[in-house]
Design goal:
Elements: H1 2-50, E1 61-65, E2 72-79, E3 87-88, E4 94-95, H2 98-110, E5 115-124, E6 126-128, H3 129-143, E7 149-158, H4 160-165, E8 170-173, E9 178-180, E10 185-187, H5 192-198, H6 224-248, H7 252-258, E11 263-265, H8 266-271, E12 277-278, H9 281-291, E13 298-302, H10 308-320, H11 322-328, E14 335-339
Parallel strand pairs: 2-5, 2-13, 5-7, 7-8, 7-9, 8-12
Antiparallel strand pairs: 1-13, 3-4, 6-14, 9-11, 10-14
Length: about 350
Amino acid sequence: MFFVELYVNLNLLSNLLSTNMKSNKAILILIIFSFFALLICCCVFMFALSSVPVDENQYSSQVVQSGDETQTVAIVEVKDVISRQKTTDMWGNETPDMTSEIIKKIDQAQNDDLVKALLLEVDSPGGDVYASKLIYNKVVEFKETGKPVVAFMQDTAASGGYMVSAPADQIVASEVTVTGSIGVIASYVDYEELFDKVGLEQVNIVNTEGKNKAGEDLKDKESEAYILYQGILDDIYDEFIEIVADGRGMTKEEVIELADGRVYTGTQAIENGLIDELGEDKEAYDLIASLASLNNPNFIRYENEDNPFSLYSMSLKNILFPELSAIESKKPGLTVQYLMKI
């Protein structure tokens, strides 16, 4: 009798455990399904929000120092490496490149009757030649309206960063600002060893007349290709010299004496005629107000109208796929820059 009862009890326990296991398994499957469903919904939601267009032609402004709105000074920032390269988020949405944004902000200031002057805040080691020239042209265009321009150099305003500052009516820099680096540099990525490792080979087919010398033996300074490219850089360098000479009221010979790629502190720059005044924010603000004859200036800074969800997905992309982000940042072919190299 005892063994019969024991058998019955064990059978009941076995059935109970079996039922619980099936129930737990069902709950686990439900949790996993819910998780993936929620993940898919979040992805769709993020894609929809990151795809919402922003008005890239009109920037909101933040008041930095309040005053009379009819005496507004527009502050436009030139920060980081100057480039026309766009970035894409995880969904393939592109963000405006920094050069286009800077140009549009200066345009907005230029077309605003309330804006009486432009303060260019520069904190950049330079960047792409073409992008730097575009910003330079826009600063010159603004200056031709008769409204004064002051360039305020912050931590670094070197190479292309100096170039975009050169046409300003006055340049202010701190004693510890790093500037100068007037020169041109070209670089390219050599994929030959990588191709060898993965078993790839690049085959070039050129025209029948002559041969393709532009991409050969660039590591040899005596090669035709190296000399060819150096001639191109010399032409670009000459234009940089002319821009500095024109902006600073110097002769080309005087600029060439300073333009061997070396960098200067703010103190050294003022001694060599590359800037006009030493100081920080207060001195820059006072100077632009004085040049524009403003007794109650209202300083505003144009803000980027970035989609926060797109920025978030770009950050997520950089975390999840760092190698892809690194590859995307490298342009194919030769890159020519006004860029301070350390």
